[in-house]
Automatic annotation (TrEMBL):
Upper lineage: Bacteria, Pseudomonadati, Pseudomonadota, Gammaproteobacteria, Thiotrichales
One Pfam family of this chain: Zn_Ribbon_Prim
Ranges of compositional bias, category Polar residues: 26-37
Keywords per UniProt: Coiled coil
Name the record gives this protein: Primase-helicase zinc-binding domain-containing protein
MF GO annotations: helicase activity; zinc ion binding
UniProt feature coiled coil, ranges: 142-174
UniProt region (Disordered), positions on chain: 1-37
Domain DNA primase/helicase Gp4 N-terminal Bacteriophage T7-like: 75-115
């Protein structure tokens, strides 16, 4: 089973209802990673998975390396530290941002974000995952005021990410509009070519004027291009 990616925008797990995503995979080769367990207490539960995921963007390789997960080139198929094999495991393209990985797990494919990897390789519980990452980010030592500030930053980043995604969707809609209009215009020009051809064959030939439809579709294409691209200058387009 492939677990859905716990993206940076997923809602924080509900209190008293452990995020099933991070516990879904009962790895047969679970082993305790004792080097860090000593630091893990039930105390630091203030930061949720989604908040930590935001704060961890770009830091997964460094963090995973620090807890003993061997780093490979992104996309390279290698043996899995969690379940063996020779070439079943790989880091995904967005690994630096999300920690995302994939493992074929001997015919039972699995994958997930940087937290889920801690479970796949070390069998860590959600609590252990949160604690270890919070320790790495130095969040265990900071006071409540600093935590609040960080949380606000994380929320702001989440909103910015959402806005960027919405903007991208809107641009994709405009781009696809332009393509549709362009195809319509090509159809109309082909139609006129056909009319011209018929005219030469049967009517001794005359020059077919552009049809009304052809002119209309050209105008629609023009409008779609303006809508899609004219606004771009000076706009921080992601
Ligand atoms: Zn594996």
């Amino acid at each position: 089973m492939i677990q859905t990616a716990a993206g940076a925008l997923s809602p924080p797990p509900k209190r008293g209802n452990p995020d099933s995503y991070h516990t879904a995979k009962a790895s047969k080769s679970s082993k305790n990673y004792t080097a860090n367990n000593s630091k893990m207490t039930a105390k630091n539960q203030q930061f949720s998975f989604s908040e930590l995921q935001l704060l961890m963007r770009g830091k997964w390789a460094g963090y995973h390396g620090s807890v003993g997960i061997i780093q490979h080139k992104i996309g390279k198929q290698v043996g899995c530290q969690g379940c063996g094999g020779e070439d079943r495991f790989s880091f995904q393209k967005d690994y630096p941002e999300t920690g995302r990985w994939f493992c074929r797990q001997g015919g039972d494919p699995t994958g997930g974000d940087g937290f889920a990897l801690l479970h796949h390789i070390y069998g860590w519980t959600p609590q252990q995952q949160l604690q270890s990452v919070a320790d790495y980010l130095g969040l265990s030592k900071i006071d409540d005021k600093e935590k609040k500030a960080l949380r606000l930053t994380a929320e702001k980043q989440a909103k910015e990410l959402q806005a960027a995604i919405a903007k991208k969707d809107e641009q994709a809609r405009r781009d696809s509009n332009v393509l549709t209009m362009l195809e319509n215009l090509i159809d109309e020009i082909r139609h006129r070519q056909y009319l011209q051809h018929q005219a030469v064959r049967f009517n001794g030939g005359y020059i077919a004027e552009p049809t009304i439809d052809e002119v209309t579709t050209a105008q629609e294409l023009n409008a779609a291009i303006l809508e899609a691209y004219a606004h771009k200058r000076g706009v921080d387009y992601v």
